[in-house]
Design a protein that fits this description.
By secondary structure, the chain is of the alpha/beta class. It has one domain: Response regulator (Rossmann fold, 3-Layer(aba) Sandwich). It contains 5 helices and 5 strands. β3, α3 and β4 form a beta-alpha-beta unit.
């Protein structure tokens, strides 16, 4: 699945909306509720880009940890972070990737993805 957008978002409705918007824009996606579900794809170097929620469920690695683990495997992996907590955005190093604050409209999401991946 190297050409797919990998989405890690714990909120089911948001995850589904992100998938639907990106598919409508012509992207192939695979979406997961947490890092553990997506680990096989990420650990094997899969995914063209990672859309990653910063705040993931307790008991699972949070978004920044997931980003660091993914970048260990693929230093060039583009990442677009999303968060419902605007104050968290300031703690993300700009070199890791852009941070979109929820609610994220479809055009904003597609634009952020398009900066890194072409259909």
């Amino acid at each position: 699945m190297p050409d797919r957008i990998v989405i890690i978002e714990d909120d089911e409705a948001t995850r589904y909306a992100f998938e639907r918007v990106l598919k409508a824009a012509g992207y192939r996606t695979c979406a997961f509720a947490n890092y553990f579900a997506a680990a096989q794809i990420l650990d094997s170097g899969g995914g063209a880009l990672l859309v990653l929620d910063i705040s993931l469920p307790t008991g699972t690695p949070h978004g920044v940890s997931v980003a660091m683990m993914a970048r260990t495997q693929r230093p060039d992996l583009p990442i677009v972070f999303v968060t419902g907590f605007p104050d968290l955005a300031q703690w993300i190093d700009a070199d890791l990737g852009p941070v979109l604050v929820k609610p994220v409209d479809g055009d904003t999401l597609v634009s952020a993805v398009r900066q890194h991946v072409r259909v």
